[in-house]
Specification:
heterodimer; A: about 110 residues; mainly beta; 7-stranded mixed sheet; 4-stranded antiparallel sheet; 11 strands; globular; B: about 110 residues; 6-stranded mixed sheet
């Protein structure tokens, strides 16, 4: 158990809809990162939040956005869903050090029809 | 650019030793991580290397050579529960925490 939780576990949406995924980090961890993992692939970095500010972003379009709250919870929002957005979405929490280990939540499986 | 390579699939027998290799090319280097991921589950942390050499942790060991851009994960006394995907990930020196993952190596342990 990593102490990182995510909700919902599974979600089915249709193309064009919007979705919000939630994550609760380990207590004391000020950094949360989000990753997208397509079937059979490694996780791809979406973005990272540190103390409620985005401080790094991967190669994902602006329709992927996020929020981090003071209570160690965070959200990933995806607008205008596309079929290729179907994937496992993982959040990972870590403390402040740039070399600190990231601990992953169980993920949300998103299916876009 | 950034590139992480590892074999797609490996098979081994219970009780044996297996070595999973990972080569990387990144614009910077701030450490290399190995994670284990069972099907449908979250990646779980196994090891972290930032200096050259071998890090041993029970049945699992990880080796790093920064000059060669190479790492391996060594699993000893294999058990059936070790059947999983093993992900190699590099932290580039980007000024913030970001992991660049390989596609993962699926290990199948048979009796």
């Amino acid at each position: 158990e990593t102490g990182v939780t995510q909700s919902p576990t599974h979600l089915i949406k249709t193309r064009g809809q919007q979705v919000t995924l939630r994550c609760s980090s380990q207590s004391g961890h000020n950094t949360v990162s989000w990753y997208q993992q397509a079937l059979g692939q490694g996780p791809q970095f979406i973005f990272q939040y540190y103390r409620e500010e985005e401080n790094g972003r991967g190669n994902f379009p602006p329709r992927f956005s996020g929020l981090q709250f003071p209570n160690y919870s965070s959200e990933l929002n995806v607008n205008a869903l596309e079929l290729d957005d179907s994937a496992l979405y993982l959040c990972a929490s870590s403390s402040d050090s740039s070399t600190d280990t990231q601990y992953f939540g169980p993920g949300t499986r998103l299916t876009v029809l | 650019g950034q590139n992480i390579d590892q074999p797609t699939e490996m098979t081994a027998t219970e009780g044996a030793i297996v070595q999973i290799n990972c080569t990387y090319q990144t614009s910077g280097f701030n450490g290399l991580f190995w994670y284990q991921q069972h099907a449908g589950e979250a990646p779980t942390f196994l090891s972290y290397n930032v200096l050259d050499g071998l890090e041993e942790k029970g049945r699992f060991s990880s080796f790093l050579s920064r000059s060669k851009g190479y790492s391996y994960l060594l699993l000893k006394e294999l058990q059936m529960k070790d059947s999983a995907s093993y992900l190699c990930a590099v932290s580039p020196n980007t000024g913030f925490q970001k992991l660049v993952f390989g596609t993962g190596t699926r290990l199948l342990v048979s009796p």
